[in-house]
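Reagents: none. Just compute today. NAC transcription factor 56.
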Amino acid sequence: MESTDSSTSSQHPQLPPGFRFHPTDEELVVHYLKKKAASAPLPVAIIAEVDLYKFDPWELPSKATFGEQEWYFFSPRDRKYPNGARPNRAATSGYWKATGTDKPILTSKGNQKVGVKKALVFYGGKPPKGIKTNWIMHEYRIVDNISGTKPPPHQLPADLANKKHSLRVYVTNYLIN
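Predicted 3D structure written out:
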């Protein structure tokens, strides 16, 4: 379960020397996730699209477009049941378990909630007897408006009704103690 380096020159987009990708939570939601959900152009194509629940966390660095200590992914949120809201966070040999409370992501002025951040920890094995690992993932999701309620799907274009509310940005990393 060791972290691996995903840095191969063929995977990296053409970026200027010294480029570092360290977006704030607000930047991830506003400039990447919202634009991706709306099919708008992104500032730079640096976040890979991966169905991350089909992989164990130590396989993810090789799937990333960019990153050495943190890896960024766009991924659909899988549902445990077809008509339910409960997420399916099972991976190949374990599962991602939510920990702590959801953290609101506010604009830099602090006057509007634009998203929510959830922390997840990877456990090997099957619940409830899984073994906690050092793999951490943060899930970022969009908040549609200030009240945080979603418009009914019939009020959205068909492609956005399914895509916008299920798309997430995930930041995965391995903590070394």
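Strands lie at 48-49, 70-76, 94-106, 113-124, 131-142, 167-174.
Action item: order primers for follow-up constructs.
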